[in-house]
Specification:
Elements: E1 3-8, E2 14-15, E3 26-29, E4 32-39, E5 45-51, E6 54-58, E7 63-78, E8 84-100, E9 107-126, E10 134-152, E11 157-175, E12 182-191, E13 199-204
Parallel strand pairs: 2-13
Antiparallel strand pairs: 1-4, 3-6, 4-5, 5-7, 6-7, 7-8, 8-9, 9-10, 10-11, 11-12, 11-13
């Protein structure tokens, strides 16, 4: 079987940062992404999307804080066998802060802290066979330290990349009609220069 990506829009953040940073400057921005997948010689198809607007400010030439909404969804279609569709959606928010080193330099490493809260739901709908439709509620919470860099490509433009995370994450699931929920959690370090933990954005000054 072959996994095919039809379309991918990487997360891009268009945000304000005067000369990389200036005390009191405000920034707005966001991230958006879409993926579509199919499996060769199969009727299975899937897609996912994300949209994350944000706003923040520089408290000093080194310290940046912000808040962002996090909207995401997935859809998986299975056309063989029971013939069903699984859709999920999440709507939440993240609070973050970043401390940048080397004020005034073009290349600036940073360390940051993110706090995420993401409630959501997963629905399974059967269009054939003898399956039973279902819905579950989910909740994701995380507190993570992260590391990355900022690079000024002009007095008003800055490229920012993040590639490491250390912290606590929990995930809970409660099925429709159930009296109890299942909770899993982990604490650990993830370092990846190119994988799922790596994000890059472009920042611009208002």
């Amino acid at each position: 079987m072959k996994h095919i990506k039809h379309l991918l829009v990487l997360s891009l953040m268009f945000v304000s940062t005067l000369a990389i940073s200036q005390n009191g400057s405000i920034y707005i921005g966001g991230a958006a992404g879409f993926n579509a997948h199919s499996v060769k010689d199969s009727d299975t198809k899937s897609s996912d999307w994300t949209f994350s607007p944000e706003v923040g400010t520089w408290l000093s030439d080194n310290l940046q804080v912000g808040i962002g909404l996090k909207l995401s969804g997935t859809k998986d279609d299975y056309k063989s066998g029971l013939n069903y569709t699984v859709t999920s959606s999440r709507t939440g928010a993240t609070l973050y802060g970043r401390y940048f080193f080397k004020p005034g330099a073009p290349f600036r490493p940073f360390i940051g802290l993110n706090i995420d809260a993401l409630p959501g739901k997963v629905k399974t709908d059967f269009t054939g066979g003898t399956g039973t439709d279902s819905e579950t509620k989910t909740f994701d919470f995380g507190v993570n330290l992260n590391a990355g860099f900022g690079y000024a490509i002009s007095p008003k433009w800055m490229v920012v990349g993040s590639f490491a995370a250390l912290g606590f994450n929990s995930h809970s699931v409660k099925a429709d009609g159930a009296s109890e929920k299942s909770v899993s959690s982990d604490f650990g370090l993830n370092i990846n220069t190119l994988g799922n933990r790596f994000t890059i954005g472009f920042y611009y000054t208002l």
